[in-house]
Amino acid sequence: MFALQSDIVTQAFFDFVANLRTALPAIISGLVFLLLAGILVKAVLFVVKLVLKRTLPGESPVYRQFVATIVAVFLWFAVGLSFLSIVGLEDIAASLGTAAGFVALGVSYATSSMIADAVAGVYLLRDPDFMPGDAVEAGDTTGVVDTIELRKTRLLVDGDVVVRGNAEIEKKWRKLTDADEIAQREESVTS
Length: 191
Known about the structure:
By secondary structure, the chain is of the alpha+beta class. The protein contains six helices and five strands. The chain has two domains: about 1-90, no CATH class; about 125-190, Roll (SH3 type barrels), CATH 2.30.30. Strands 4-3-2-1-5 form a five-stranded antiparallel beta sheet.
């Protein structure tokens, strides 16, 4: 009985060593790939941060860091999937890629209004006609722009602060001129 168990353990050890010899070139290739990919990802992230700093100089560093983090997540995920393919685990890489796609689709659907506000916020932050201190009419709200953030804008309306989502504002807004403000004041006095 003991000899049978010893033969099974010995055979398993020899199978393991044989399989390790077969897999060793793929493992070494994968490790070299990880080293080179890590250097490349660091270089790409350095360039992304540099470009963001130059294109959005006045913006909060939080916005730039957010974009850089999203780029980093995508790059490292691609490196991980590529590594799995190199070491011979293509099926796992394909499954993870598919699962990540479905998760991303669900997250983007669940956060679609937040994404719409953020995209509109980028446009409003870059628009020279929509700045803090400007009198604007946005939908049914007329007031002075107090602050513009990535997802929302704060308007001062009759001493109160009104917060609106940027997607709502970006759909239809207009800057009020002095003539518009005078006409609106006359309308409010007569009514």
